[in-house]
Request: fold
Amino acid sequence: MTVATIGLGIMANPANAAVKLCFNYYSTFTDAGIGEDYHTSSSASSRTARGLWVKVTQNGTTKFEDYTDLNGCTGSLSQLNTGSISYKAYASAKVSRGNKIWLNDDASGTRGYHSGTKTISSTGTTNITFTPSSNYRNQFDILAAASYAVYRNSGAKSDKLYRIRSNTTSSSGSHFKTSGHNGNPTVYMYSGHSNKKFVIVHEVGHMLTYFNKGGRWENDCGFKSTSCPAAAGAHSMASKENNSCAASEGFAHFYAAATYNNASQDDCKMHYYKNEFGNDSSPIVDCETSNGAFVTKYVENSCVGSPTGYSTELDYMRSFWDVLTDGTNNPCVNDIVTWGSNANWGKSNATTRLNSTASGTIGNKWPTARDNNGLN
Reply:
């Protein structure tokens, strides 16, 4: 189905329509509508096709083949005639600071696309809204989340390529590899996560920290707690872990939360996808304060043994959120990414290294955020 709204204007000379095309496409996030601020509908919703790669042809001649701008628009195309055009939109985008997101199927390598037609009848702006074809809808869902995240928070880097492979059959499920497809840094998305925006952006967050540092943040998740919950025996939101794992994974949760919550407000909600406590496969986590079983200072209050050198993803996520939002003169997400990269921690000294590298506004906020959330 293609829905289009035609901007009003003076009828153009057939040889010179001077039309700007602006694209939107439908995407669906089933983990939306839990109290966050952006992309809040869990139903199929039309979203701005920021930086979408589009090819436009008319009468067999290519009239535009490039990325749109951050509003999903081509700019004025005076070479178009009134009448029918054809377009082909690919699951690729170029967003803030020249950073690009490319989607390919992990098995076939195919990049998703959607083809359609539109009749140009006037000057001004023609809005084209499309529903991606069913074969590639998952790629466009992933693209919508990933491009929105990097559009909002680029990780303070430019001209990076975010390679994402959809429909991975890896036993690891959704994950990021520094040496993935053809040896390049790659995010792999499990098919069941293609419409879960918080999972998508979590994995993008790992790639973003890699680009910022020039190497992966230390992320040793090898510790297996016998006292704290861990979904399927792996690291999870409230499992006791080496604090390198807790900090790296906690940041990725924070990045997803910061993408979809307004940082000018303290309140923050994110949808978690693992069955953490055996009775809820998709709990809502409050990034700001204790909620349900997700109590504050989790490693201190709910885990046995010394907390030194250990923590939980939950405690770190809330600490980063407090640094971003509590008080005044707040840093931005990119400041926090760079701080984490400069900390350069090892297996179990993430908090110590963050202490020694916190400066300026972050240095003023960090001690309170750290102590309120029980980081050691």
Summary: The longest strand covers residues 83-94. The chain is about 25% helix and 25% strand.
